[in-house]
Amino acid sequence: MSNSKIKIIPLGGVQEIGINCTAIEYNDEITVIDVGLGFPLSDQYGVDYVIPNIDYLKRNKDKIQGIIITHAHLDHIGALPYVIEDLGFPEIFASRFSIEVIRQKLEEHELMEKVNIRVVTKESKLASGSFEISFFGVTHSIPESMGVIIKTPAGTIVHTGDFKFDNSPMNEPVSEYDRIAKTGSEGVLALLSDSTNSFKSGHSSSERVIYETLKGIVENAEGRVIVATFSSLLTRLYQLITIAQETGRKVAVAGRSMENIIAVARKLNYIDVPDNLFVQDRNIKSLPDDKVLILATGAQGEHFAALARMARGDHKELDIKKGDTVILSASIIPGNDMLVQGLIDDLSEKGATVFHKAEIMDLHSSGHGYQEDQKLMINLVKPKFFIPVHGYPSFLHKHAQTAISVGVDPKHTIVAKRGDVIELDNDNWQIKKHVKANPVLVSGSGVGDIGEVVLSDREQLANYGVVVISASVDVAARRATDVQIISRGFVFVKTHQDLIDRIAETARKSIESDVKDHSSEREIRDRISRSVRKLLYDETEREPMILTVLNLFNRGSRKNSSKEKKSAQAS
After folding, report:
1. Is 401 domain-assigned?
2. Quick check: pTM over 0.90?
3. Where a domain ends, among 321, 355, 389?
4. Is there a binding annotation on residue 71?
5. What CATH number does the domain containing 34 carry?
6. In which compartments does the protein localize (predicted)?
7. Is 203 among the catalytic positions?
8. Could you tell me the residue range of the domain that residue 471 belongs to?
9. Do 194 and 238 fall within a single domain?
């Protein structure tokens, strides 16, 4: 055992669901596990994605031996197109299935030709500097999911990736109990383990149970069946396509992301069905309703996803009609409750029968283990130190309590924050420093150019709207002319003309007062904003954004007039 310490640096995934990214560092070598994205909070207006902050990795990119990908979900691979170039294009190690999904993402950003990707399997062994890396297969909800074993002179680190223990899975093998146990018997310094379902007792449901429930609903449906689920939940898509084939229904796919993942699965024979089982959505109307099954994105009530557009009547080819059976085969992500309820209401008003109690009715099984799965993983690995990952802080603390309940020393459980540099040796652990790790926001084509000031402005605009004040100012005459008020998202001008007139009068008085005081243009604008802001808050208790546009003219006449006045006074 070396005297050197190993460093574990979570750059994401320990204060949120998503943005999974962990750096394992020994001496001058770094191995990165996953580079995922997350989705914005409700108050991060206009933000598309959230990705890990890689400043530390950029400063140390010459040390990076490679990026290990545990599986193909976006919260583990989605940030690659945004960071791979800044990291100097290190080699990516991923399963065949993961590589195909990564390829789609990189091609969209025209980066595929620059990237070096190597296929690995659960039998692969890699040697790079001080690292010896191997893998073990886990059941999740997408093919070829793997955990990672990293052996270093300082000890062995095990990262589970996302996992569950399902002894009757569909379209993927059972987790490799034997290999996990063998690794544990050889001694493990630290285990990093999936905490997603740390508050759920028992074992997660088997996919076989979900299959039987879904098949029963489809068999009994007299009209069309529309199923919404996560586009990356390939195990569920496989089940539904199999059920459609067994019940004599054609399959239509609504949602680009779902189309892409099914295309990869068919290319690699994870979904092996005839081409004529699928039908374009524009051709559905030519089929009897009881011969149609539609797979759709939008189980979380997302406004622009296929199911929500169908419910509103905004979809180009599909809509909801009386007699449809709609299944929401996904658990509700915390914070999406109202969106999902609104979707259910819209579907019901259109006459659809909606099945949506996903976990109560066995319509959905999580790909993440519950408490008993988590205990089993800990007992198989037998780590000296335990580091929960992949979850909100409360999830991590709960997982740490579970670890303690099966014998892990409480002093050896480490609940980390983003950017913590955890230093480990065989005897102790400590966090001596912290690296910058605040997540980076992606908005359109911009990466990292959205900060707190911009988000604050967007929040103000979203909540209160904007009032624009424009005026022409005759500096020499010391008066404002052509004062105009524009309101957007604040009040409707035609029904609040009195308030609009008072805004204009307040602005006019402020302008003329400031001109007399020889104020600068900036001072005039600031004073207008303050006086109008006070008026509006007093009248409405709202705080819209106030923008002032001034056209100052006759400045020279004012200066000449002032000089003449001073000259006369001097004489």
Report:
1. yes
2. no
3. 355
4. yes
5. 3.60.15.10
6. Cytoplasm
7. no
8. 465-553
9. no
Task: Give how many domains the chain has, as a whole number.
Answer: 3
Residues 194 and 218 in one domain: no
Task: Give the SS3 label for residue 201.
Answer: coil
CATH label of the domain that carries residue 321: 3.40.50.10710
Please report the pLDDT score of residue 481 as a whole number.
Answer: 82
What is the DSSP code (8-state) at residue 30? Answer: E
Q: Is 496 annotated as a binding residue?
A: no
Closest to 223 in 3D by CA, of 95, 329, 322: 322
**Catalytic position from the list 194, 281, 324, 420:** 194
> Quick one: pLDDT at residue 365?
78
Residues 278 and 415 in one domain: no
For the record, the structure tokens of 465 come out as 């709207």
The pLDDT of residue 514 is 67
Q: What is the phi/psi pair of residue 474, to 5°? A: -85, 100
Paired tokens of 200: 């759920």
75 known member of a binding site: yes
Looking at residue 563, its pLDDT comes to 46
Helix (H, G, I), strand (E, B) or coil at 482: strand
Q: Is 98 annotated as a binding residue?
A: no
Give the pLDDT confidence score for residue 441 in this predicted structure: 87
User: Which tokens belong to 90?
Assistant: 């290190």
**Encoded tokens for 212:** 């039987």
- Quick one: 192 and 228 in the same domain? no
Q: Which of 368, 373, 412, 420 is catalytic?
A: 368
- Is 13 annotated to bind a ligand? Reply is no
How many secondary structure helices (H) and strands (E) does the chain include? 16, 25
Is 368 one of the annotated binding-site residues? yes
Specify whether 420 is located in the same domain as 519: no
Taking the chain (571 residues) in runs of 10, the rounded mean pLDDT of each run is 83 94 96 92 77 96 97 95 95 97 93 94 93 96 96 96 93 94 98 96 90 94 95 92 97 94 95 96 93 94 91 92 94 79 93 79 79 98 98 97 97 97 94 92 76 80 91 81 90 88 89 69 85 91 91 65 42 31
For residue 425, indicate whether it is catalytic.
no
Is 524 part of a structural domain of the chain? yes
pLDDT for residue 359: 53
Whether residue 331 is found in the same domain as residue 407: no
Residue 364 assigned ligand-binding role? yes
One domain, residues 219 and 96:
no
Flag whether 140 is marked binding: yes
